[in-house]
């Protein structure tokens, strides 16, 4: 009876966690394309991650057997998602829910340091719109979204240290070390905040001759870091793919994907220009960001020390610089900028905390339910105000993302339609090639595994990596796969689409390939058109074509 009584007390004290979980499921259901409410997750990147994750589950090695440049943890998560749902990205929905849940929990932990429990719960409930802000949160399931709580966790550690003379527990150092390793093997351009935090804390401890704290930071952070990366290093060594991993993940990322050829200093200035533009381009972001940062600097209710304020600003700036380092202004993929948002959350937390104190807001057992429910409804209203993804869901049948046909008959998007055809007309598992564009989701719906190194195209100019399209064309010349899927702008035939002249052989808006006219003669020599389907993707009307090998 004593055990059950303790469990009951614990559940009562932690009931806010259940509330956070329910809200996370509810909000992600409306915002993420991985949700059961959506027909399909159309994101090229997400389907690419899923294809490589699925391949990994079948013994096909990333970097060595298929070319892709994200970190191995991304593919592991999508491989697990494949085991949960083999022909859709529904298996990523629990990861999305977990990410938002953890973000709310960390916001609660931050607020709880400065106000009472129910007020901290209310503040946490009001925060999700930052993580779901469209178009930075577009389809969902980006590395930036999944690591949103990790960046918040770093800021929480800073705030915790600021309140305790920067004495940080072994547990927090171990956690931060693990998060560094996790981020390092997911997308290392998100490490800027951690880099400046560790360098600054090391200098701080040396200045104050806190040798015990230096030792604790190094030992426990290293332990957490090794826990995150050593299993992968063992895996790559065991599969003889370590050199391929280093070449693709580090060398190719740094030399092929960089858009700017300027000096290091110039690239840093470009990054700050991009960040400054980001803070000015939306009124809400301007208020929460630029004005909010000024508020934090001059407020005594947030950071207790000048060093804490300075370190927060340095972390914010370096975080922003790393995220878009090597990119020109107006050439940044907006989902990269979602990683700016965890720092926008902090001024809002303290604005709420101070408002609660100033107006002496009372939340007690009598009004708890109505206050928290009101906060949830207000938060949901804010989410819908910054994210309209639900308009492309099953709640709105036959919307433009599914078909451009004017019909009342229920339709399916091209991905589902083509996937059904390929599975029905193939002996065993289909073989296919996604020609000329980033993975469009047809590997996902057909169940096909990539059987060529360049199973898709990339956001790379042809001159920088001609082997990609040349390798794909070689697959077509030798008719190595049963199915070919490609796209053109709506109204264009395969043998008439030359691509956009200014794109230099690059994928363009709408995930359109660089052109099919030159390769059409070779293509039609070995393949015939089975069907096509037109739908809207990223403000472009796109026709998808399904071709089958001639027997």
UniProtKB/TrEMBL annotation:
KW Transport (keyword) present: no
Highest taxon of source: Bacteria
Gene Ontology biological process terms, A to Z: lipopolysaccharide biosynthetic process
Annotated localization: Cell membrane
One Gene Ontology term of the molecular function aspect: pentosyltransferase activity
Keyword Magnesium: no
Bilayer-spanning residue ranges: 16-34, 80-102, 114-133, 139-159, 166-185, 191-208, 220-250, 278-298, 310-328, 340-357, 369-386
GO cellular component: plasma membrane
Keywords: Cell membrane, Glycosyltransferase, Membrane, Transferase, Transmembrane, Transmembrane helix
Main location: membrane
Membrane topology: Multi-pass membrane protein
Protein name (record): Glycosyltransferase RgtA/B/C/D-like domain-containing protein
Protein source organism: Lentilactobacillus hilgardii (strain ATCC 8290 / DSM 20176 / CCUG 30140 / JCM 1155 / KCTC 3500 / NBRC 15886 / NCIMB 8040 / NRRL B-1843 / 9)
């Amino acid at each position: 009876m004593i055990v059950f009584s303790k469990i009951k007390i614990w559940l009562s004290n932690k009931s806010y966690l259940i509330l956070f979980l329910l809200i996370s499921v509810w909000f992600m259901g409306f915002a993420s394309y991985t949700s059961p409410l959506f027909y399909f997750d159309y994101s090229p990147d997400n389907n690419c991650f899923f294809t490589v994750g699925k391949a990994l589950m079948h013994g096909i090695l990333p970097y060595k057997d298929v070319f892709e440049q994200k970190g191995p943890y991304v593919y592991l998560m999508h491989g697990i998602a494949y085991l949960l749902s083999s022909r859709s990205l529904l298996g990523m929905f629990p990861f999305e829910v977990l990410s938002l849940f953890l973000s709310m929990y960390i916001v609660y932990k931050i607020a709880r340091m400065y106000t009472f429990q129910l007020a901290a719960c209310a503040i946490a409930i009001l925060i999700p719109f930052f993580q779901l802000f469209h178009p930075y949160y577009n389809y969902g399931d980006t590395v930036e979204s999944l690591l949103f709580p990790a960046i918040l966790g770093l800021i929480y550690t800073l705030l915790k240290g600021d309140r305790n003379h920067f004495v940080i527990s072994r547990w927090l150092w171990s956690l931060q070390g693990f998060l560094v390793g996790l981020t390092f093997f997911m997308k290392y351009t998100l490490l800027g905040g951690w880099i400046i935090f560790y360098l600054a804390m090391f200098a701080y401890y040396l200045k104050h001759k806190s040798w015990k704290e230096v030792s604790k930071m190094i030992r426990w952070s290293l332990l957490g870091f090794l826990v995150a990366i050593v299993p992968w290093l063992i895996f790559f060594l065991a599969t003889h793919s370590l050199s391929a991993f280093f070449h693709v993940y580090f060398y190719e990322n740094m030399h092929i994907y960089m858009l700017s050829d300027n000096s290091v200093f110039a690239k840093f200035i470009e990054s700050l220009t991009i960040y400054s533009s980001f803070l000015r381009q939306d009124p809400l972001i301007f208020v929460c960001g630029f004005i909010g940062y000024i508020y934090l600097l001059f407020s005594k209710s947030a950071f207790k020390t000048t060093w804490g304020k300075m370190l927060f600003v340095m972390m914010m700036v370096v975080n922003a610089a790393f995220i878009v380092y090597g990119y020109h202004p107006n050439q940044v993929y907006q989902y990269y900028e979602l990683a700016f948002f965890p720092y926008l959350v902090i001024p809002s937390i303290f604005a709420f905390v101070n408002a609660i104190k100033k107006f002496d807001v009372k939340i007690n057992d009598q009004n708890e339910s109505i206050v928290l429910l009101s906060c949830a409804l207000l938060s949901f209203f804010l989410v819908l105000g910054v994210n309209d993804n639900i308009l492309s869901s099953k709640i709105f049948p036959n919307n433009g993302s599914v078909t451009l046909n004017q019909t009342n008959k229920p339709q399916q998007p091209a991905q589902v339609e083509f996937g059904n055809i390929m599975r029905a007309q193939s002996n065993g598992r289909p073989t296919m090639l996604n020609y000329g564009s980033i993975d469009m989701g047809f590997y996902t719906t057909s169940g096909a595994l990539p059987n060529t190194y360049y199973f898709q195209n990339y956001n790379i100019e042809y001159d920088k990596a001609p082997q990609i399209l040349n390798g794909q064309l070689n697959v077509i010349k030798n008719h190595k796969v049963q199915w070919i899927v490609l796209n053109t702008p709506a109204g264009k035939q395969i043998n008439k689409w030359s691509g956009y002249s200014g794109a230099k052989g690059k994928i363009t808006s709408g995930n359109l390939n660089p052109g099919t006219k030159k390769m059409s003669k070779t293509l039609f020599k070995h393949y015939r058109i089975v069907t096509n389907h037109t739908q809207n993707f990223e403000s472009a009307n796109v026709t998808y074509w399904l071709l089958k090998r001639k027997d």
